[in-house]
C-alpha cells in the first residue's frame, strides 16, 4: 500500500480554479517543459487524475506544478495539469499560478514585478502588480497566436451544420460565432453547450488536422469557443469555452482570448495596440491587447497579452492512497 501526499494551494482566476501543487510533484526528465510534459503524461498521469477529478477535484479543476527553469535567465517553468490532460499553455492557470507563487514566496523573480515563465508551449513573459503582499493583477504576454483555418464546416447533432474558424492561442480553438443554427451562447444552458461541444470536437478532429508549425506534440483542436452577446457595455466580446469533457471555463480563458484576438486580427477587426476586453460565462473579464506581429513559419501571428486577477482561497494537503478505490479519480 502506498500513500502519496501533495501540498496544494487552491485559488481561482476570475472564477476558474487553479490548484498549484507546491510539494509532492514528481521529478521529470527533459530539456524543456514540452519534453517534461511528455514524461509526465507517460509516467505520472495518475497524479493529474487523482488531483483533478472527483472526489478530490471536479469537472472544471485545473492546476499546475512548478519546476526550475531550463534557461538560467528565466525564473520558473510550469506544467499545467487539468481534467483535460496537460495543456501546452493555460492563461487562467498562469494568472493563478503566478499570483500564488508570488504571494506564497514560492518563486523569487530576478526582477521584482517580472516573471519569465517557461510553459510547454514556449516562453511567457509576465508582469504583475502588488499591493503589499497581495498580487492585484497579472499580465502575461503569450506565445505567438494565429488563425489556422477559416470557414470550416461540421455537423453538430442537435444544432445542425455549423461554420467555424480554428485559431491558435496556446491551444487550438474552434470558434463558433452566432449564425443560422446557433443564435449565441446566451440562449442555451451550459449543460447543453457542453454536450454539443463534446460531439462537435470529436467530429472536427475526425474531419480536420491541426498541427502546430513548431511543436508537433500540439496536434488537435482541443477547445470549443462559443460566442455571444456581451453582458456589460465595456466588454468587446463574450465567450463560453469548453475544455476537458465536462467543463465551461468560468474565466474568460487566456488562450481562448489569444486565439480570438488572432482571429479578429487576421480578419482586420483588430490592429496592433488595440485592446480586447473578453467576458466569461459568469461575466468576469480579461483585458487583452495585440502587442506585436511576428512571422511564425509563414503564418502571420500576433503576440497577445492578457491581464486578469486571481485570489487564493485555501491550503489543501491531499492524499492519494492506493488503498482508496477512487485513488485516481472518476467522472460521471
Ligand atoms: O485560460 O487558457 C486558459 C484556459 C484553458 C482551459 C481553461 N482555461
From TrEMBL:
Looking up InterPro entries in the UniProt record yields: Pro_racemase_fam
Which Pfam family is one of those matched by this entry? Pro_racemase
Q: Which Gene3D superfamilies match?
A: Diaminopimelate Epimerase, Chain A, domain 1
Q: Does the keyword Isomerase apply?
A: yes
Q: Which UniProt keywords apply?
A: Isomerase
Which Enzyme Commission numbers does its entry carry? 5.1.1.8
Recorded GO molecular functions are: 4-hydroxyproline epimerase activity
On the tree of life, the source organism's domain of life is: Bacteria
Q: What class of enzyme is it?
A: isomerase
Family that this chain belongs to:
Belongs to the proline racemase family.
Q: Report the protein name in the record.
A: 4-hydroxyproline epimerase
Question: Which species does this protein come from?
Answer: Mucilaginibacter segetis
Amino acid at each position: 500500500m502506498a500513500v502519496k501526499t501533495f501540498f496544494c494551494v487552491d485559488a481561482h482566476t476570475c472564477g476558474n480554479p487553479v490548484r498549484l501543487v507546491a510539494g509532492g510533484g514528481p521529478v521529470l526528465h527533459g530539456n524543456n517543459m514540452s519534453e517534461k510534459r511528455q514524461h509526465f503524461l507517460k509516467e505520472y498521469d495518475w497524479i493529474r487524475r487523482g488531483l483533478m477529478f472527483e472526489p478530490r477535484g471536479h469537472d472544471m479543476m485545473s492546476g499546475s506544478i512548478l519546476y526550475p527553469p531550463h534557461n538560467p535567465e528565466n525564473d520558473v517553468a510550469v506544467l499545467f495539469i487539468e481534467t483535460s490532460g496537460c495543456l501546452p499553455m493555460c492563461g487562467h492557470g498562469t494568472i493563478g499560478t503566478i499570483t500564488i507563487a508570488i504571494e506564497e514566496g514560492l518563486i523569487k523573480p530576478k526582477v521584482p514585478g517580472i516573471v519569465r515563465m517557461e510553459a510547454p508551449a514556449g516562453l511567457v513573459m509576465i508582469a504583475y502588480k502588488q499591493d503589499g503582499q497581495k498580487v492585484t493583477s497579472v499580465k502575461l504576454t503569450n506565445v505567438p497566436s494565429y488563425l489556422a483555418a477559416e470557414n470550416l464546416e461540421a455537423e453538430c447533432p442537435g444544432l445542425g451544420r455549423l461554420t467555424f474558424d480554428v485559431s491558435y492561442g496556446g491551444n487550438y480553438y474552434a470558434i463558433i460565432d452566432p449564425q443560422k443554427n446557433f443564435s449565441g451562447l446566451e440562449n442555451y444552458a451550459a449543460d447543453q453547450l457542453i454536450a454539443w461541444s463534446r460531439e462537435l470536437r470529436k467530429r472536427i478532429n475526425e474531419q480536420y488536422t491541426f498541427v502546430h508549425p513548431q511543436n508537433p506534440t500540439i496536434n488537435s483542436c482541443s477547445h470549443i469557443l462559443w460566442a455571444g452577446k456581451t453582458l456589460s457595455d465595456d466588454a468587446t466580446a463574450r465567450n463560453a469555452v469548453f475544455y476537458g469533457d465536462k467543463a465551461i471555463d468560468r474565466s474568460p480563458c487566456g488562450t481562448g482570448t489569444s486565439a480570438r484576438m488572432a482571429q479578429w486580427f487576421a480578419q482586420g477587426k483588430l490592429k496592433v495596440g488595440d485592446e480586447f476586453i473578453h467576458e466569461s460565462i459568469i461575466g468576469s473579464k480579461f483585458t487583452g491587447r495585440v502587442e506585436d506581429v511576428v512571422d511564425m513559419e509563414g503564418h502571420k501571428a500576433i503576440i497577445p497579452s492578457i491581464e486578469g486577477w486571481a485570489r487564493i482561497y485555501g491550503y489543501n494537503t491531499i492524499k492519494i492512497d492506493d488503498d482508496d478505490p477512487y485513488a485516481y479519480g472518476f467522472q460521471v
